Amino acid sequence: MTKADIVARISEKLGIEKGDVQATVETFMEEVKNSLESGDNVYLRGFGSFIIKTRAEKTGRNISKNTTIKIPAHNIPAFKPAKIFVEGVKTNVEVK
């Protein structure tokens, strides 16, 4: 499913113009991004949390030059689904 599919479904379900739904979805994503960039997690009860995870410093390898490199500690955005979300997927989606 793409962003355009989401916009189309919301527009169809609520009877709102696609342009308005598009603006709302874009604004939502921008606000989540801005919150994470400013160091704040985003909690959506019943859906999940957009959180910041810290990765520790580690040693990696550049295989083309056969050298070791130091990868510094860094933060990454992550999504942690709510328990009800996880259970819904477990019970409704077939294992392939």
Descriptive tags:
96 residues, three-stranded antiparallel sheet, 3 helices
Write the layout of secondary structure elements.
Blueprint lengths: L2 H12 L3 H20 L4 E3 L3 E8 L2 E5 L4 E5 L2 E8 L1 H10 L4
Helix pairs in contact: 1-2
Shape: elongated
Distance between the termini: 18 Å
Largest sheet: 3 strands, antiparallel
**Radius of gyration, whole Å:** 19 Å
Instruction: List how many beta strands DSSP finds.
Output: 5
Oligomer: single chain
- Unreliable residue stretches: none
Please write the string of helix (H) and strand (E) elements.
Answer: HHEEEEEH
Please state the structural category: alpha+beta
How would you portray this structure in words?
With 96 residues, this protein is α+β, with helices and mostly antiparallel strands. It is built from 3 helices and 5 strands, in the order ααβββββα. The strands form 2 sheets. The protein has a 3-stranded antiparallel β-sheet. It is elongated and about 60 Å long.
